[in-house]
């Protein structure tokens, strides 16, 4: 245990910082998880659940970007980790757009071939 006043104060500060960082990390993980679940729900919707649309996914993605940037700015996660997570989520969303456009493109090519 700390003996000097400054060491005791430092212990209090570290406790407050640890709690704050834990909250931000929890929010970050939840945000990333929710975005991934929306992407998975768009790919394979479950019975009885409301279908997921692209607007929901993009709004969740924007919120996740904000949370990641704030965590990186505060030094809670590394800037490159934030960039990596943002990139992977963006790629997953882009693939959804391509998957949606692929059947439409095939239909257009089939009409053009006739």
How would you summarize the topology of this molecule?
Elements: H1 5-43, H2 54-73, H3 79-113
Under the CATH scheme, which class? Mainly Alpha
Provide the CATH architecture.
Answer: Up-down Bundle
* CATH homology superfamily: Ribosomal protein S20
Q: Structural class of the secondary elements?
A: mainly alpha
Shape type: elongated
> End-to-end span in angstroms?
82 Å
How many structural domains can be distinguished in the coordinates?
1
Q: What is the tally of beta strands? A: 0
Q: Describe it for me?
A:
With 114 residues, the chain is mostly helical. The chain has helices at 5-43, 54-73, 79-113. It starts with a helix and ends with a helix. The mean pLDDT is 89.
Question: Which features does this protein show?
Answer:
114 residues, mainly alpha, Methane Monooxygenase Hydroxylase, Chain G, domain 1, 0% strand, elongated
Describe the structure in brief.
This protein is 82% helix and 0% strand. The chain is mostly helical and 114 residues long.
């Amino acid at each position: 245990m700390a003996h000097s006043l400054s060491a005791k104060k430092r212990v209090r500060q570290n406790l407050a910082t640890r709690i704050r960082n834990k909250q931000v990390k929890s929010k970050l993980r939840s945000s990333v998880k929710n975005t991934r679940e929306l992407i998975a729900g768009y790919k394979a919707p479950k019975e009885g659940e409301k279908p997921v649309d692209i607007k929901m996914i993009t709004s969740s993605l924007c919120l996740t970007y904000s949370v990641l940037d704030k965590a990186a700015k505060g030094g809670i996660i590394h800037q490159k980790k934030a960039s990596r997570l943002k990139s992977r989520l963006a790629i997953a969303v882009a693939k959804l757009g391509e998957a949606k456009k692929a059947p439409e493109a095939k239909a257009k090519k089939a009409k053009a071939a006739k």
